[in-house]
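seq as requested:
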Amino acid sequence: MPHRANAEILIIDDDPLTRELLRKTICGTGLVCAEVADGLEAWERIHEKPPSLLLLDYELPQMDGAELLKKLRAEKDPTLSQMPVIMLTGHTDERSEVICLEAGADDFVTKPINMSILRARIDTHLRLRYMRRELEKQNQELEAWRQNLERDLESARLTQQALIPQKPMQLEGWDIATFFRPVIQVGGDIFGWLPLDDGRLLFWIADATGHGASAALLTTLTKLLFHHGSDEEANPIAVMNTVNNDFRSIFGARQFMTAMCVALDPANGRASVIGAGHPPLLLLRANGERELIWSSAPPLGLADRAQFTESIVDLAPGDSFVLYTDGLLGGDRGKRGRVAPQQLLESIDTSAPTMEALLLNLARQSATTDNNSAPADDIAAIAVGRMAKK
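struct tokens:
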């Protein structure tokens, strides 16, 4: 039996006949025994070579059993403070039992000792000791695994930070802001912008299926695919087709992601909007009008030959748009619950002085209770506004 392997019992009793009887009884069951006659000797022996279990007499010279046990339970070393102790007492009154238990005894046996009961209780407490040590070992392994996971997530976080723009693009005549907040260290949302050969800027955003490290790996691939698509084509429809075909060739139909891009001509404010299963673009006009531009194609990776169509939008001075992932719509943990895109559009405070303030207000609405609370889902957003003429 594993709980009895290498187990040593220390018998502490000032009566030599009792010690001999206990030693013969216990050693006869295959356990190793040692014995001492008083409390001070026991205290030294315990620290020199901690036993597996103590059989401790209540009445001892030098230091009685209750005093010894109180000191033992006060030790910082858990090997000593958590050592199983069975008290042996010749008192049968309730007060003695209370004193034993208050001192920290795991169990007690009254004299004259019933050896069958004693053997059974020794076996029980050795088994509990073994189970506690196994649990401690598992907890240590779990903690080591948790620390390794934390290190891996931190590495993934730094990698993802390198992929996601840390500062908004500076573009004359335009105010651009970004927001990114994953549920854990890393998330499945990503965004960016790319110059196209025809002079336009391609703002894009994507949301991979799932959360955490696996979804974050997909974001790495997503950025590579968008860069690859923009290198080959200046047409945003062609870029989306390239990303869809590459994504599907890698995963088949086993993975997908939603995405939306806006090809913006910063000179005249004309923009082409293309969405693939993604939440609709939020369009805000300087005159107070608001509009949703919906996706026209399924998520990337689902359809073999997706049909992408673009919506043309002309942005006048004072107009703006917001690309975002569905985490901005809230979720089960949100204080307001999940909202529809139309509700999100109507909730936008257009009096915000900057695009950054506008995004922070939107993100605050999706928080659980305060700005430091974890969101129900990853949140990413890009806000682009055309500055009003002075």
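DSSP finds ten helices and 15 strands in the chain.
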